[in-house]
Sequence to fold (568 residues):
Amino acid sequence: MKISQKYQLTQPLTLKRLGVNQATTRTRWNHRESLLGYAKHDIKHIGLWRDKVLELEVKDTKTLLNNHGMKVTCLNRIGPVFSSDGEADATFLEDAKRGIDEAVALDAESLMYFPGTSLPNNKNLDFARQLAKDYLDKALELARSANVKIVIEPLHPMIAGDRSCLNTIAQCNDICDGLGGGLGIVVDVYHVWWDPMLKAEIFRAGAARLAGFHINDWLVPTTDLFSGRGMMGDGVIELRKIRGWMEQAGYRGSVEIEIFSELWWQKNPDDVIKLAIDRALQFA
Amino acid sequence: MKISQKYQLTQPLTLKRLGVNQATTRTRWNHRESLLGYAKHDIKHIGLWRDKVLELEVKDTKTLLNNHGMKVTCLNRIGPVFSSDGEADATFLEDAKRGIDEAVALDAESLMYFPGTSLPNNKNLDFARQLAKDYLDKALELARSANVKIVIEPLHPMIAGDRSCLNTIAQCNDICDGLGGGLGIVVDVYHVWWDPMLKAEIFRAGAARLAGFHINDWLVPTTDLFSGRGMMGDGVIELRKIRGWMEQAGYRGSVEIEIFSELWWQKNPDDVIKLAIDRALQFA
Fold:
């Protein structure tokens, strides 16, 4: 196995390319604390969540970011589209408009569309996927006129039963083919590392669509389907190999730490970020 | 949504097409008890496991089966190919020969190839998949000369980290394309129900490759990645829709109940089989 040959084009990761997604510290840091915490570690690319952003005036968040030379990668999120009865939520588009306005005010690189799914209340996955696509089309129309890029993200098949009906990168590429410009794909290793089509579909997405790269790890054993992610290096994901594919496909954006984990959420967030940076530079 | 139109070609399921996989009652019934238990419920198609089969002489199992007009669907299994260091296990081919002999003696429709994976000991998924294919090729050569059909089965991506490197039906179809005849695919709804390519890949497999159809259900929430399967009707899988695709693609084999579940393993197996038959006829 000449694995090294596969990696030779992959430049070492540097701190200036690293990002942190606010979900990583969501339990113990409020919005302001998190921005100051990331700034302390010289992190320049921040993935924000709208529920956190709402803790301050948007302009105050922007000032905080500017003061530390920080940029917003992706603003999470508009959606879910489905209400609790498994049908379309009538309030989705109004909320999408607010999300687009916030993305503009924060100068975010992108705005995440999170469709959710009709399951388990409406057990028709084809219906869920069609409706998810239809409402993405509507949101895109609004976003294009505001010059905001919408991104979608395949989520792991194990949460297709209750969290998201977008489950593979091929499916997201198909949706992008169908809906045209203004749309990108975020690749989170946790959701896609197992996919035999991963390399091919990253290349299919290419520089034009690849709009985010999230890192963490898949633990063996995994005991929680939602918040059981691992710290980079503690699991089985070949982070550097996948980053290599992203870069060979033309991706030049940030490498964003995003760890949903009951374990790490309990620990001192400052320690977690320090360790995550070390691990990212070592393993990704 | 005119869902009914999609189902109109799907004939109601009948008891004579139903099968039971021995894993469903593995905790509380030994081999002989399980065969007599399934016979009592008029089940004619039985998925056997080699560790259970070893409890009796193979010829005694065959006599038991014959006495009740029962046929073996699939004999589980040869593999895993990987030893605990993540490399190929030197004993695999010897064991495969024994498995082939047992499949012949039991007149089984097929013999399952279970590659396992090199992870987490050897974190190179491409290596694991290549080695899994190479050893399938070797096992196929042995099986063809004994006129035994080998089957492969995509297992859910959530167990790609430790249990199997075959994770989608597309991947299994690609392997079949590469290795030629004598090879079939078992479709277990639990592992594939979420796949946006499921219908297309079932049709791609077609009558020649489709060699088994397993039913159970995906629970929301799912709390155990290995033995947390649900009873048909308790989860979110559209069993009848998927069975319709199988049959439209030409599959005419049995519909096999296979429930890996700590919950159901604790209950009276006779009650579980009775309920599972009722649920299968109602929902699948």
Summary: The two ends of chain B are 20 Å apart (CA to CA). The beta strands of chain B are 18-21, 45-49, 71-78, 110-113, 150-152, 183-188, 210-215, 255-257. Chain B has twelve helices and eight strands. Chain B touches chain A through 36 residues (CB under 8 Å).
